[in-house]
TrEMBL record:
Part of a heterotetrameric complex that catalyzes the two-step biosynthesis of anthranilate, an intermediate in the biosynthesis of L-tryptophan. In the first step, the glutamine-binding beta subunit (TrpG) of anthranilate synthase (AS) provides the glutamine amidotransferase activity which generates ammonia as a substrate that, along with chorismate, is used in the second step, catalyzed by the large alpha subunit of AS (TrpE) to produce anthranilate. In the absence of TrpG, TrpE can synthesize anthranilate directly from chorismate and high concentrations of ammonia. It catalyses: chorismate + L-glutamine = anthranilate + pyruvate + L-glutamate + H(+). InterPro entries: ADC_synthase, Anth_synth_I-like, Anth_synth_I_N, Chorismate_C. Residues 35-176 form the Anthranilate synthase component I N-terminal domain. This is Anthranilate synthase component 1. It comes from uncultured Rubrobacteraceae bacterium. Heterotetramer consisting of two non-identical subunits: a beta subunit (TrpG) and a large alpha subunit (TrpE).
Length: 377
């Protein structure tokens, strides 16, 4: 990345003031040539931070693969367990009771309008994290006595709220450092309060840009070798019984689909989670990839589909069901695609998940507004 001595900020202070009259938050950014920096090399520069996340696409030519996002040092973290959010920020640590973690997160983080700027993606900061699978119990009525034991100790929800972000624009081969100027609490955007907020954001951009431009001193993590055993939380017999029980539920009409998932675990010693992520993105490059480290917890993931995408007041889901492996040639891909479309079982699964997705959207959408934009593609 080029040096920061001649760093140009967009928008200017005057332009930012004008935007702040209409929006709560104004993104401030500096742009650099990024042909020598990669998302992984950038993560290495911030790997010692307590909280680091990387959201990227390994298929840069895809529609949703233009940007990668790197964040660290959040202004606030939120962890949810047993009906209580633990909030850590500059004011210290506090607990906020919340019977509904979804509403609770929205109330704590708040909702602010962000000024749209050319050359910036829709996401320029905010809450990054997860709701665990067990959070479904706050959406659906499920018998509490059948809840699985909490044997991992993972929070039901965990989020980092960031206002400074590194954005990789793979299309333009640029690196952008973005920091948010929050004008929501200011009485007058013409006064010194807004000027100070603008300068704080500029200082944050400069500090991050200097770290990106400095020589990389940390080596990429390696694996020391050796073997390890992988174990499942199911025995073979137990898994087969779970499958038979699921089939009984389906025959009885109590369920459309059941996923008797397995959790595999292994003792691997001091394995750096970034190494695990690098391995995952190598063997399974996907449009939606995640690396998240918050304290002692690390999460890595790769998915071919977005579960839900929200832009403005439009919500989209893209269920993927019915699959084949990729062929070695374009011709082989075409043959496999025809085979997939002719498979009755695969077609039935796809139709079922599309219907379920349509029903889920219908629960939160205006009546009659849900439409099927693509099918069996």
């Amino acid at each position: 990345m080029t040096g920061t001595a001649d760093m140009n900020l967009t928008p200017s202070l005057g332009e930012a003031r004008a935007l702040a009259r209409s929006y709560d938050v104004v993104p401030l950014y500096a742009e650099f040539i990024g042909d020598l920096e990669t998302p992984i090399s950038a993560v290495l520069r911030f790997a010692e931070e307590d909280t680091v996340f990387l959201l990227e696409s390994a298929e840069a030519a895809e529609r949703f693969g233009r940007y990668s996002f790197l964040g660290f040092d959040p202004k606030r973290t939120l962890s949810y367990r047993n009906g209580v959010f633990t909030v850590v920020d500059s004011d210290g640590v506090r607990e906020v009771p919340a019977a509904d973690p979804f509403r609770g997160l929205a109330e704590i983080v708040g909702q602010k309008s962000v000024a749209p700027l050319p050359n910036l993606p829709a996401f320029v900061g905010g809450a990054v994290g997860f709701f665990s699978y067990d959070a479904v119990r706050y959406l659906e009525k499920l018998p509490a006595e059948l809840a699985p034991p909490d044997d991992l100790g993972v929070p039901e929800a965990l989020f980092a709220v960031t206002d400074t972000l590194v954005v990789f624009d793979h299309l333009r081969h640029k690196v952008l450092v973005v920091s948010l100027v929050d004008a929501a609490g200011l009485r007058d955007v013409e006064g010194e309060g807004f000027t100070a907020a603008y300068r704080r954001a500029a200082d944050d951009i400069r500090r991050v840009a200097e770290r990106l431009a400095a020589p990389l001193t940390r080596r990429a993590p390696g694996f020391g070798g050796g073997s390890f055993e992988v174990s499942s939380n199911f025995t073979k017999e137990g898994y087969e019984k779970a499958v038979e029980r699921a089939k009984e539920y389906i025959r009885a009409g109590d369920a459309f689909q059941v996923v008797p998932s397995q959790r595999f675990s292994a003792e691997v010693g001091e394995l750096d989670p970034l190494l695990l992520y690098r391995g995952l993105r190598t063997v399974n490059p996907s449009p939606y990839m995640t690396y998240l480290k918050m304290g002692d917890l690390a999460l890595v993931g790769a998915s071919p589909e977005p579960l839900v995408r929200v832009e403005g007041r439009r919500v989209m889901t893209r269920p993927v069901a019915g699959t084949r492996w990729r062929g070695g040639t374009v011709e082989e891909d075409a043959i496999l695609a025809e085979e997939l479309l002719a498979d009755e079982k695969e077609r039935a699964e796809h139709v079922m998940l599309v219907d379920l997705g349509r029903n889920d959207l219908g629960r939160v959408s205006e009546v009659g507004s849900v439409e099927l934009a693509g099918f069996m593609e």
